[in-house]
Amino acid sequence: MVTFANTKSKRTRSIPIDRELEKALQIYFKRHGLFTNCMLTFSRVLDKTSIKLPAGQATHVLRHTFASHFVMRGGNILTLQKILGHTSLAMTMRYAHLSPDHLQDALRLNPLTDEGH
Questions:
Q1: CATH number at residue 101
Q2: In a domain, 3, yes or no
Q3: Model's pTM, two decimal places?
């Protein structure tokens, strides 16, 4: 698990991570210590690319990219809401249109059809 504290919403939340990522992070921490101001490093890397973002949007871009790919791979919108820490499902629904089967669920999950059983 990764625990996020001091978030914009002022709520702490924990998100499960892949075991391989956990191992890689543990190795990194043993070699280099905990992350210190990683957003400053990310911003410096962005400055060396042709990617131009409005001021203060670097973290938003990372969140948006994760959320978009999560939904495109079939992730549950309620799970995404919890991961992103949105208090309103309406905020998370901005990503629903990216789901490859977002309208097909109406057929697949319909309890009145043979497919829904």
A1: 1.10.443.10
A2: no
A3: 0.67
Domains contained in the chain, number? 1
Instruction: Indicate left, alpha or beta for 6 from its phi (over 0: left) and psi (-120 to 50: alpha).
Output: left
Whether residue 3 contacts residue 12, with contact meaning beta carbons closer than 8 Å, is answered with yes
CA distance 38 to 14: 19
Work out the number of other CB atoms within 10 angstroms of the CB of residue 66.
14
Mean pLDDT of the chain: 83
Question: Residue 8 above 90 pLDDT?
Answer: no
- Whether 22 is in a domain gets the answer no
DSSP 87-117: S-HHHHGGGGGG-TTTTTHHHHT-TTSSTT-
Q: Is residue 2 part of a domain?
A: no
The predicted-structure confidence for 31-82, as pLDDT tens digits, reads as follows 998 877 777 888 888 889 988 888 878 778 888 889 999 988 888 899 999 9
Task: State which residues form the domain around 101.
Answer: 53-117
